[in-house]
Amino acid sequence: MIMEQYIANYIVCMLGYDDGINRVVAGLQNISMGVGHIWTPTNLFNSKNSYALEPDETFGVLALSYTRYFKNSSSLNMVISQKKDKSYKYAINYKLSLDTTDITLNMIKSNAIEMIGFSIEGDLGESGIEYRSEGAYINSGDNEFFQGIVGANYAFVNGINLSLEALYSSKTFTYNQILATLNTPIGTSMKNSNLYIGAIISYNFNIYLSSALIYIESIEDKNSRFISPSLTYTINDNNSLSIGAIIYNGSSDSEFGILDNSYYIKYMLSF
Question: Which of 16, 24, 55, 269 is spaced 20 to 30 A from 143 at the CA atom?
Fold first, then answer.
């Protein structure tokens, strides 16, 4: 039996068992689905929020998950999670690895939502380019739509890492609709625009100083954009200091233009 830690604004313990063929984990955990770096349409458990101050932090899900690994480099994962209203959400995904490509089929079902999706991730030969794609057909009562992403990333020899991604949504929603359903299973999936393009650029000046930039453009009649630069200084193995900004740009009635900019200083202590 193993004991693991997961940090999502707090520390919790999970109990699990892993013998190399079977893996069982029970407790508050991160249900990993999707391959997107900016958006993950198939992940209706721990959906990535790239607009957040700390996009890599997600809330844990109270769940029981089981993974079975097969000899043909494939695996089957099943999840049962309990929601706040005491109802249950079920998920199953099958992953198959073919040489340099991983293909995954996903299904999620609860009393409020159904999702069927896929994800593909792999390498383009010896080019050094990694590609990815995922898509999800989502049905939640009156809201039925498709969302998908395509993306690629490349590490340049000078130390710059570039990740590009585009998101398409077959249905758009107003701000009032999004706010009214923010805490529902599809709250993070509802978008103002049909198409977004985004990029993540990172560069390490040295072992102590690193930088990152997230850029997201909303492609619509009134284009607007989200820009989040940051600079991090690693003091030692346990301490780091970051400065950054979250900048919204566009016309006053555009998706990002109606929001106010913010600037921050963040000190992180890890142990």
Answer: 55
pLDDT tens string 82-97: 877 788 999 999 999 9
Q: What Rg value do the Cα atoms of the chain yield, rounded?
A: 20
| 47 neighbors 183 (Cβ within 8 angstroms) | no
Backbone angles phi, psi at 188, to 5 degrees: -80, -10
- DSSP collapsed to 3 states, 6-67: EECCCEEEEEEEECCCEEEEEEEECCCCCCCCCCCCCCCCCCCCCCCCCCCCCCCEEEEEEE
The confidence score (pLDDT) of residue 221 equals 64
pLDDT value at residue 247: 95
Taking Cα atoms as reference points, which of 137, 104, 101, 97 lies closest to residue 119? 104
148-159: pLDDT as tens digits: 999 999 999 989
Dist CA 268 CA 229 (whole Å): 17
Angstrom distance (rounded) from CA 23 to CA 245: 41
- In the predicted model, what is the mean pLDDT of the chain? 88
108, with CB counted inside 10 A (0-12, 13-18, 19+), is buried
